[in-house]
């Protein structure tokens, strides 16, 4: 089968799960494509036999940037599953992903959630002279991921009846109406600034890290920030290799970058 893993990831946590899924699918002999959701996301999905859709939880729901992009996809009744990462409270994230595509996609095969430490840099330990201790990161259960993919492939081959949809929490839905807008998520990062002494003009922030087109490279070679496009993914402040991007909310805190290779190096 040809399988597409569609995911949104700011700092690499959800991309890590997509990579684990992809490795398991490849070992079973399938062809896997990784499709990170970014601005102007319009992939051709007609040739895929199975789709996986993943996202982190932003304040107990899938980022609106994600669900808006998913609603415009042409899924051609392709069987699908959804997955999410969270700091321990996914809220309605799985339901949001499911609801965004249910009318266009095919058989729903199931859902998966895993806890990863929140990527909000302001919650990270204070910077010290030594490397920050990230031993508090919970281990990602590869065995759980492997078991889930095995179940998905079994359901796909048997063409069983659709799984029940993820549950929706009405109270969280009310919360989401008022407290999960794009500008509110961007406020968790704060107004971004650049330390030109640290910046080596690598342009990774604009070309690989930022998913929303909120960073452009100026004629002088330095990044320029458009706060109106920021979706609050925390990628730029966490994954800049020189730690040159900062805000008052995140300064003096360690970067959250244990999964940076999944963003800085395309899967």
From TrEMBL:
InterPro entries, per database record: 4Fe4S_Fe-S-bd, 4Fe4S_Fe_S_CS, EFR1-like, Flavodoxin_dom, Flavoprotein-like_sf
Domain 4Fe-4S ferredoxin-type as annotated: residue spans: 190-220, 221-251
Coiled coil: none
Pfam families: Fer4_9 (PF13187), Flavodoxin_5 (PF12724)
Name used for this protein in its record: Ion-translocating oxidoreductase complex subunit B
């Amino acid at each position: 089968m040809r399988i597409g893993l569609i995911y949104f990831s700011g700092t690499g946590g959800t991309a890590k799960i997509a990579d684990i899924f992809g490795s398991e699918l490849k070992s079973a002999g399938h062809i896997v494509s990784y499709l990170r959701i970014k601005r102007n996301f319009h992939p051709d999905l007609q040739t895929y036999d199975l789709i996986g859709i993943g996202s982190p939880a932003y304040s107990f729901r899938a980022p609106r940037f994600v669900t808006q992009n998913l609603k415009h996809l042409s899924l051609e009744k392709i069987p699908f599953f959804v997955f999410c990462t969270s700091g321990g409270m996914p809220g309605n994230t799985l339901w949001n992903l499911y609801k965004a595509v249910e009318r266009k996609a095919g058989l729903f095969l199931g859902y998966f959630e895993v806890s990863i430490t929140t990527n909000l840099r302001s919650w990270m330990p204070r910077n010290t002279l030594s490397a920050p201790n990230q031993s508090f990161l919970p281990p990602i259960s590869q065995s759980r991921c492997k078991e889930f993919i095995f179940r998905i492939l079994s359901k796909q081959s048997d063409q069983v009846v659709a799984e029940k949809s993820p549950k929706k929490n009405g109270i969280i839905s009310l919360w989401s109406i008022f407290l999960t807008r794009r500008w509110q998520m961007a406020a968790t990062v704060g107004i971004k600034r650049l330390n030109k002494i640290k910046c080596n003009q690598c342009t990774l922030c604009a070309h690989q890290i930022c998913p929303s087109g909120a960073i452009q490279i100026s004629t002088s070679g330095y990044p320029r920030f458009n706060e109106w496009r920021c979706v609050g993914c925390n990628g730029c402040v966490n994954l800049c290799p020189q730690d040159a991007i900062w805000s008052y909310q995140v300064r003096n805190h360690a970067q959250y970058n244990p999964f940076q290779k999944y963003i800085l190096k395309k899967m």
